[in-house]
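User: Structure tokens for this complex, please. No commentary.
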Amino acid sequence: MRTPDEHELTRHLVDEVDAETAAAVDARLRDDPEWQAAADETQQTARHLRQALAAEPLPALTDDQRRAIVERSTAPRRSVRRAVLLAGVGSLAATLAIAVGAHVFLGDTETPKVEDRLQVRIDPAPAPPPASSRAPAVPMLPAPALAPGTAPTTVAVFGTVLDESGAPLPGARIEALGPDGNVYTTTAGGDGRFGMTGVPPGRVELKAKLPGFMEVAGAVSARGGNLVAWSPTLRVAAMTESITVTGAAPRVMVSSAQTLAGQRSIQAPAPTVVVSGDQSVQLKALGYVGGARTVPGPVGAELPGFNTEGYGYRADNDFLDVAVHPQSTFAMDVDTASNTNVRRFLTGGQLPPADAVRIEEMINYFTYDYPPSRDGAPFAAHVEVGPAPWRPGHRLVRIGLKAREIEAVDRPASNLVFLIDVSGSMDEPAKHPLVQASLRLLVDRLDARDRVAIVVYAGAAGLVLPSTPGDQKAVITAAIDRLRAGGSTNGGEGIQLAYDTAAQSFIRGGVNRVILATDGDFNVGLTDQGGLVRMIQEKAKQGVFLSALGFGMGNYKDDTLESLADKGNGNYAYIDTIAEARRALVEQMNATLVTVAKDAKIQVEFNPAQVASYRLLGYENRLMRPEEFEDDAKDGGEVGAGHTVTALYEVVPAGGRSKAAAAPPLRYQGSRPPSAAARGGELLTVSVRYKEPDGSKSSLLQWPVADAGASLEEASPDFRFAAGVAAFGMLLRDSPHRGQATAAQVVRLARSGLEHDAGGYRAEFLSLVHKAQPLLAARAPARRP
Amino acid sequence: VEAREAAQEVLERLAALPASQREVLRLKFQEELSYRDISVVTGLTVNHVGVLIHQGLKALRARAEADRPPVVALRRAR
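Assistant:
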């Protein structure tokens, strides 16, 4: 007889197994005293858990929570788009609404995530629910949560969209055609999950759609209060027009739940799934708030700017007319988290959501062969002009800036405070252990001049390691090894403590930095995020900067981390493997730790005699107004030693067909004659403004550029490679500006740019393109009927 | 009172588990769904559900034994 494993033991104890497995488990139980002990413990734990869940208390609100709810419930609502981008300041009321509901019904004290807030904010039925004696604050809220004892009158649909292999499929559009003739839509999140509430009862027809996949349909008759679990499997579409397959036997399960809180479960014959209680709270508790947008409207109605993984929405930059917008200004950005994210999705066999693809971060992930300046300036500029491979007739301008390099021995002393999230959500192999491993790598590189402290935060914040000299590696490493994940998260307090610690051991003239390691899934308590951001900005002015390292997968919210890092004059990186940790922390230790310039901004002025219109690729959320370039009060980007910053412009030459909307003619301002410089044939001028790391007044560097008319073959390998990365980004984003870009073209460009491939990152990129190729091909036919 | 406190501690330990484990444990021990139905509802494979439930129970047991708040433990460790 085969030897069963302990998972089978557990299943045998709490569920059903087939007869053969049962016999094997029973046999081993008879012979193995350790197994008997394990079985007893498992049964005891299961019993305790059942009892605890059955007797789940209904905790009261604290006074602070109640006050906050009352205050916030009267505040005006903001637009949905803004709520997504800011992740929450104005939506605190809604946050609490769900939190209250969760307490009442499930006692789940977990912090609500961004999508929870959204669910409530945009729910189409904001009618105040009836009063409840248990949760006095609930009736104050425009929330969909129903009080216990009130029968919900609508239907909720939730589930997970799967592909043929059974893996979750993100981004599918779920439509429910209600008996009222309205179509209710939502979008599955990055983990394939979706949940929609507020569908009227009656016959509900369900559809799951995703470009490149065959549509799946199902129907159900649901009564008010029903929760319908539906997990459709989508098959890749054939290479023809999109086909609608009806009756592909999706599993539709209906509950007859109409129960009060406390009445926990109703057993019904399989395959009926019964989930009781309030719908939105249940969906939240089960994690099905993924695409929580439930919008009644005509088929095809689409709210732009919404997705569920916490990536801020960004439209591609458009072409701009040089006559109207002669200058293009943006903050220098060297973050590279997007590339890691894209790799995670593609390695998992999925196309990343468009908004997770940030072209500038992908381009800047790779190092380019830009020699540093010889005259001691913090930047050297390398500008190259060649054809835009995806659009004949257009030119592509690659602006490469290389920051000054600092030899390891010249590295200033570092005062580092690690701020480590040890909340329960970090307790996964790709998170907490990776944090520890990453920190060990970094600590290994420090020496006696440096100082290290460790602050942890979860339910409360604590100083685990006071500031310790960097050569006492055994002490530091032991502290890292002792870290354990578990507990809930409150980021605000930890950040305060970390900054206080950094200030106490401040090294004048050195690097003073708080390094935040988290999965980004933290809230800041009841203090508002604005206050946190202000504090981070304030500390940055005093010379303590913030680096944010994002770990883990599922609930990763990269706009929060990015915005914190931005405000803290810092950078952020997304770490999912130990190799990535090495890259972010060790190989680029100087760059990660030593800022050679702060508030760096780039301004490009185009010569109207040469350029009709232009488009900046990426940097959408770094754009600045032209006048902000000269304004030293406006934050720019931080650049570390040895970093390269690359920006690409697609340029329509003068005389070509301008892609930009033309400006109406002016009545009072005639056209000015071109300056002498404009007649000189220059294409553009690159200007960089920056401050020394400890300075407050900016300096200016300028480089005029002409187009020598180089062909793609004459362009440098770096140029072709960067163009390939940009084209790949546009394909992944399904950008309207992708022109004739194809995956095959990306491969050609990247391959011809493999010459400088220190670290093998470019070869890795090529393998990613190969992974994406079939996925892009599968998406293409549906998009172009 | 004692039983209620014990239950409260179990719930706290449950809340500290990773979301994936917490979810399947609630579906199993609160909603009393079978592994198969949990698999359908969550989109996870039955095997994965089994692993999560096993690990979740194991983690609850381990935490019950350790039974001390992690941050306090860290402070003490110093």
